[in-house]
Amino acid sequence: MHLHSYRDESRSRHFDLIGHNWSIDLITVTAAGILVVGFAGAIAALLVR
């Protein structure tokens, strides 16, 4: 498993975690995680109210 960094056509940097038969874009996973945590926090705030 290793970390791979590259820039796409629009000069945005991407970080990929590459294993034997898979690859994960760490920027996409981080953004999705932030959205899920925010959604869960909003649901929790509604339930506590």
Describe the structure.
The chain is an alpha+beta fold and 49 residues long. Helix content is 47%, strand content 31%. It contains one helix and three strands, in the order βββα. The protein has a three-stranded antiparallel beta sheet. Strand 2 and strand 3 form a beta hairpin. The N and C termini lie far apart (45 Å). 0% of the residues are buried.
Which helices and strands occur, and which strands form pairs?
Layout: E1 2-7, E2 13-18, E3 23-25, H1 26-48
Antiparallel strand pairs: 1-2, 2-3
Keywords: Membrane, Transmembrane, Transmembrane helix
Brief overview:
The chain is an alpha+beta fold and 49 residues long. It has 1 helix and 3 strands. The chain crosses the membrane at residues 26-48.
